[in-house]
Amino acid sequence: MNNILLQYEQGIIGYLPKLAVAIIILILGWWSIKILLRLFERTIGKRIRDESLRRYFFSTSSVLFRVLLLFIVASTAGVETASFLTILGAAGLAIGLALQGSLANIAGGVLILVFKPFRVGEYIETVAAAGLVIDIQMFHTVLRTTDNKIIVLPNGPLAGSNISNYTREPIRRVDYTFTITHSHNAEHIIRLIKHDLINDKRINEDKPFYCSVGKISETNIAIDIRVWTNTQNTDEVSSALYQSAYNAINGTYNENRAETP
User: Which residues sit opposite 230 in a β-bridge?
Assistant: First the structure.
């Protein structure tokens, strides 16, 4: 019995140097990975102009470096490499079967970066959510909504869904339709709105605007407005159209009321 305990004690004492070296490698390696990633960001990161690709590159590199470090630490600690690879392969197969969705998210992230349906800094809308893209990571994409909420979308379903990109093109068309009654002077309202459109410098002069009578029913007359503007001005121009229509309708209503005996 004493001999067995002595053998175990000698084995533990003989293993301690390997364990100490493995721990030192783990600490130094973890610290070195952080420095290496910072160095990459200052050198390679500046050459990658696409912000989405840059973020995805550093996120993936961080995971791969840490996995490689753990493999080196295990080998230094005395774990047989062949056995470790066998265990790692079996674990990888089991994890892969259990995490098929996660693997699909990685593939979806790659597809997003290759085909670029959107980039960091663009405003998109999907079936699930709408917001400004602030990050594209290995497994998911992060959006910020207009009311400052953070939405995390898995890359797999996102890559295969319908995506509306509102900021990719430099100019966009703004449509607005409102209705008036037959008692209003439609021609006068259209004339007032056109006057506002002509004097609004945010509206693109290269593409003519449209303002005319649309659908007419027994009770209402629809006025359709379509203008082109720079993408960053769409919200302001939309508000200007609402205000112009409101002012034109109220001005006509006051004139009609003034003429009523």
Answer: 171
Q: How far is CA 76 from CA 19, 31, 81, 89, 112, in A?
A: 8, 18, 10, 19, 38
Domain limits of the chain?
2-98, 109-165, 171-259
Question: Which structure tokens are listed for 50?
Answer: 């696409």
What is the number of other CB atoms lying within 10 angstroms of the CB of residue 136?
Answer: 24
Q: What would the pLDDT profile of 136-185 be if each residue is shown by its tens digit? A: 888 899 999 999 999 999 999 999 899 999 999 999 999 999 999 999 99
**CA nearest 33: which of 54, 71, 64?**
64
Rounded (10°) CA dihedral 89, 93, 99, 102: 60
Q: CB under 8 Å to 180, separation ≥6 — which residues?
A: 186, 189, 220, 221, 223, 249
Q: Are 155 and 108 in contact (CB under 8 A)?
A: yes
Radius of gyration over alpha carbons of the chain, in Å?
32
How do residues 179-194 score in pLDDT, each as one tens digit? Answer: 999 999 999 999 999 9
Please determine, looking at this structure, whether the domain spanning 109-165 carries the CATH number 2.30.30.60.
yes
Q: How far is CA 230 from the centre of its chain?
A: 21
Retrieve residue 49's tokens: 């102009």
CATH class held by domain 2-98? mainly alpha
Cβ-contact 120, 134 below 8 angstroms: yes
Tokens of 109: 């992230």
pLDDT at 240: 94
Long-range contacts of 44-48 (CB under 8 A, 24+ apart): none
Q: What is the average pLDDT value for the chain, to the nearest integer?
A: 82
